[in-house]
Amino acid sequence: MPPRYLLRVTEQPRLAQQNAAVLLPEPFVRWFGQKGWSPRAHQLELLAKAQGGQSVLLIAPTGAGKTLAGFLPSLTELANRPKRKPGQARRGIHTLYISPLKALAVDIERNLGKPVEEIGLPVTIETRTGDTPSHKRQRQKLAPPDILLTTPEQLALLIASNDARRFFEDLRYVVFDELHSLVTSKRGHLLALGLARLRAFVPDLQTIGLSATVAEPDELRRWLVSQASPGAMSELIVVAGGAKPDISILDSEERVPWAGHSARYATPEIYREIKRHKTTLLFVNTRSQAELLFQELWRVNEDTLPIALHHGSLDVAQRRRVEKAMGENALRAIVATSTLDLGIDWGDVDLVVHVGAPKGASRLAQRIGRANHRMDEPSKAILIPANRFEVLECRAALDANYLGAQDTPPLVNGGLDVLAQHVLGCACGAPFYADALFDEVRTAAPYASLDRPTFDRVIDFVATGGYALRNYERYARIRQTREGLWRVSNPAVAQQYRLNVGTIIEVPALNVRYVQAGSRGAASRGGRVLGKIEEAFLETLTHGDTFMFAGKILRFEGIRENECFVSNAPGSDAKVPYYGGGKFPLSTYLAEQVRAMLDDPQRWKKLPEQVADWLRFQADKSVLPKRDDLLIETFPRGNRYYMVAYPFEGRLAHQTLGMLLTRRLDRAGAKPVGFVATDYALAIWSLADMGWMFKNRKPSLATLFDQDMLGDDLEAWFADSWLLKRTFRNCALISGLIEKRHPGKEKSGRQVTVSTDLIYDVLRSHEPDHILLQATRTDAATGLLDVSRLAEMLSRIRGRIMHKNLEQISPLAVPIMLEIGKMPVNGDADETLLMDAATLVEEAMGPEMTD
Amino acid sequence: MNFSLSRATLIAEADLVGIAGERAVCDRRGVLYFPDLRLLAVSDLHLEKGSSFARRGALIPPYDTGATLLRLQAVIADYQPRIVVSLGDSFHDGGGAERMHESFRGQLEAMMAGRDWFWVAGNHDPEAPADLPGETVKELAIGSLLFRHEPSKTRIEGEISGHLHPCARIVQCGRSVRRRCFAGDGGRMIMPAFGAYTGSLNVLDRAYAGLFRLETLVAYMLGAERIFAISGSMLRPG
Q1: How far does B6 lie from chain A, in Å, by closest CA?
Q2: Contact residues on chain B for A497, CB-CB shorter than 8 A
């Protein structure tokens, strides 16, 4: 099999062959000939545009030879470069390649090294990542390679060093791999600022962006070039998708569950498919699901097929072993999460199974692209919905994929916390004038609309914290010279900066280490490390609890400093760790598709019979929501009254809606007790009869769901929500207000560090308009709370709320009602829990205990 | 507000705790009040912690001293104590009192006026705070009580100390709740840290080993409206 970036001659248009001879240097043409291959049209087109001095965005599906295309301009130019004469100064970096994953950079080094060697090019290629030893980094500074493969964080570090300008003075190209995934996060903001800096060093720098299909290519095209002339865009090359993927939804003979995410019912059927194929990649949405599915599969694995587990919390060595085994085709199946999402391909995968709903259709497309990395052969994939709503979602995703629909999240304005980090980084590199840096920053697309007063506040923040109480002038990190140049006050500032660079915030997690059962870790500290688990989950465990991790059932033995000790445990009633991140809400596009499907009984024919029956029952007992309507059902049950709303706007937006509605219902006297939110629906329960209240317009649903809830109610809730505190923590860390926790340094303990929660409280009550709080609110509104999506929904449903007051629960309400009690109650009920605990003590011990 | 009335209400509503025969109020704001002595104890104010960090390059908001003093002012106004004991680490470092903004100094002096004020020496502030009234002591014995910064290794009945910043954690309904707390076993009491930027350390941590009679240990966890007295057996480490 040829490497995936090349194609056989027969498939090549003749025109391209003629072009090849013109564009490609002779050794390349000869090499292609020797191999019996020839370059693809889009590779040559990109080369032509680059040689014409343009920056280019290449959008192509996996397997289209993007990587070689991205490097052809550099390789051809380097091939024609005259040899360095003895005594001539060393040349700097020619091409910088930036990828979101360390592993990807390493992968590229391997894949690119081979043709370079075979063509006989005098080109040096090296990686520089967090794993690169310091002596190699030092050497790279003195003798830079021609092509440097690195990550956004390493670029930020290089820019902050005082020889940055010299290091990059010969730079010609920057290649961004997986650009679509880079640009949507704060990492992308930092990278955009880094690119602006590189452009300041080398004004005629060219960029090449490699991306999977995206909804708005123009956003990426702007990202790649200077926005000094507003709206400027790079050139665009789009390669049409290859063969249509062959996707099906598992039509299970088992009963599809009402609720839950495990898809346990389908395990035997999944196993049957694994046996039928050479190598199966099984994708799940969360690490918890990965652990569960892995356990379930091994329970039925009668033939002891080699089935492996791969997710981001596992020990690195363990992950590398799995990846290696994959590359050698030694595995029959791998259960994985998004750590394997991006364009790394190993081995011969011939089936992708997606367990759980695919959430965003474009994620699905990419995951399916994993199978069979040749464009001309259809990829094969099976979707396994975990519950009935997911059946609808899978169906919608499937239709969307055939339509080529894409729904990458829209790009947002660059974060001010990221800008603060960059400003300090620039100062660490070389002194700057505020005017010049402002102009430079605005050439970066995410910061194109940044205004000067905000920029000046960011500088002020970097210098002295930017507080109205100007107490810290004498501790300033950067100071202005008499000529107006900003420079770092002392070398310690730069040192501190280097330790805190980057925008990736790790959730506090502990190493999980094997010990002898019952030893509580004291005796045998030498056991193997299995990976990391988040502190928040471990806090809920007591000695002797069992849980699933790294594909094993483990017994919790105790915590000592930053390690969690575990031993092997028999038994099946194990808990599953939950993880803070990794859950993606239903995309807007898919949500719309699901609503449309519910509204169109014709389309139910494509659904499994049991699911179609469920919808028919719903039509019979209640009603199905119209495509643009919001259905709200109310019904009594037990000694509670329930309201279930079906906005289909994703868990985050529903959670926010739940918080806000609960406040309003409380004011209206409904005595709400709790709520639960899923991707599809929201249920609130109360002591008063909400059905009666809405019918008698006390309040009316229109009033209850009025958009004005996004005003004062939202602001009031912001005040002490734990979500806001978490967001603030990220902003504080990224902006450099406080230092990141470094492994090994954590022993100092809680009483020494200042918690960001405390800082948040103090800052909010003393300077609510501080720039960091401003950044926090913006982040929370777009991220955790999904306020913008909620706002769109509230405006969409005005005058379109359909209320159904029922005697009893409806079929559509069953899934969310089953979630009640299963999910931890969200948010701010701590006091109630404390009350319960204190009451227990009083009941058990009598009041004299507290006397 | 009528002082005597508010004081009476506060005491009637709060839980009275016995320490070596003395009765005390564990106030949910983190201070200890002995009504019979009209003595208010507060621990680990860590004033000027913000500026202490700023000196080392972490420019955290300079509002902690103001926030801490404001809360202290409120409890002093409520209880109108005759004696105030600040149990050490009143300032985050030796230079703290000197760095303190003029307005804060004024605020503090106004609070101190008309009462006996004791600065117990702490490990962060072993010396007397610069240019402030009040008496600096290593420890202070009043009646059956002994006030000192660090809890002593050998048991002393009636010892009131701070230093460790106790907090307690419970797990209820699969959720973990952590709060600052008073930790007492009827004989000695360790007070929570009062300062706005002070962190906390779980009472089950090794640092507390041997300090309490475990069978009578109670964590008085600070709630938004009241104190929650939680028996030691329900507490979780971490």
Answers
A1: 22
A2: none
Residues A108 and A175 in one domain: yes
A377 Cβ contact partners less than 8 Å away, ≥ 6 residues apart: A242, A243
Q: How many residues does chain B have?
A: 238
Closest CA to A262 of A214, A227, A232, A297: A297
Task: Please give the structure tokens belonging to residue A599.
Answer: 């509204």
Under an 8 A CB cutoff, do B59 and A475 touch? yes
Please state, in angstroms and rounded to a whole number, the distance separating the CA atoms of residues A674 and A337. 32
Contacts of B49 in chain A (CB under 8 A): 754
Digit-coded pLDDT (tens) for A528-550 = 888 888 777 777 777 778 888 88
User: Which of A471, A496, A749 comes nearest B62 by C-beta?
Assistant: A471
Q: Are strands A206-211 and A173-176 parallel, antiparallel or unpaired?
A: parallel
- Considering the domain architecture, whether residues A205 and A138 belong to the same structural domain is answered as yes
Domain that includes residue A491, residue range: 420-499
Q: What is the arithmetic mean of pLDDT over B213-226?
A: 90
Higher confidence at residue A425 or residue A781? A425
Q: What integer pLDDT is reported at residue A573 of this predicted model?
A: 66
- Candidate from A194-208, A599-613, A688-702, A717-731 with smallest mean pLDDT: A717-731
Please tell me the distance in Å from A513's CA to the nearest CA on chain B: 17
Task: Please judge whether A825 and B176 are an interchain contact, meaning their C-beta atoms are less than 8 angstroms apart.
Answer: no
What is the identity of the amino acid at A254?
E
- Taking contacts as CB-CB distances below 8 angstroms, the residues of chain A near B101 are 469, 471
- Chain B hits for A492, CB-CB cut-off 8 Å, are 57
Instruction: Answer whether A834 sits within 8 Å of B55, measured CB to CB.
Output: no
Domain presence at residue A594: no
Count: domains in chain B: 1
The tens digit of pLDDT for each residue in B34-62 reads 999 999 999 999 999 999 999 988 899 99
Q: Are residues A273 and A149 in the same domain?
A: no
How distant is the Cα of B105 from the closest Cα of chain A, in angstroms?
15
Residue A717 neighbours by CB under 8 Å, 6+ apart: A659, A660, A663
* Residue A223: Cβ within 10 Å count: 26
A689 to chain B, closest Cα gap in Å: 27
A35 and A167 belong to one structural domain: yes
Residue with tokens 């913008």: A788
User: Has residue A783 been placed in a domain?
Assistant: no
Instruction: Render A738-793 in DSSP notation, one character per residue.
Output: SPPP-TTSGGG-TTTSPPHHHHHHHHHHH-TT-HHHHHHHHHHHHTTS-HHHHHHH
Cβ(B26)–Cβ(B228) below 8 Å: no
The nearest CA of chain B is from the CA of A520 a distance in Å of 14
Residues of B whose CB is below 8 A from A477:
57, 59
Whether A433 and A391 share a structural domain? no
Q: Which residue among A499, A534, A550 closes a domain?
A: A499
Cβ of B176 within 8 Å of Cβ of A539? The answer is yes
Q: How many CB pairs under 8 A join A and B?
A: 155
B229 and A834 in contact by Cβ < 8 A?
A: no
Residues of B in contact with A755 (CB under 8 A): 199
Residue A215 burial class via C-beta count within 10 angstroms: exposed 0-12, middle 13-18, buried 19 and up: middle
Nearest neighbour of B201 by CB, restricted to A467, A750, A851 = A750
Tell me the pLDDT tens digit for each residue of B112-136. Answer: 999 999 999 999 999 989 889 999 9
CATH number of the domain encompassing residue B47: 3.60.21
What is residue B10's predicted lDDT score, i.e. its pLDDT?
52
**Chain A residues touching residue B57 (CB < 8 angstroms):** 475, 477, 492-493, 496
Residue range B76-104: mean pLDDT, rounded: 95
Q: Picking from A75-84, A455-464, A817-826, B163-172, which range would have the lowest pLDDT averaged per residue?
A: A817-826
- The CATH number assigned to the domain holding A19 equals 3.40.50.300
Has residue A363 been placed in a domain? yes
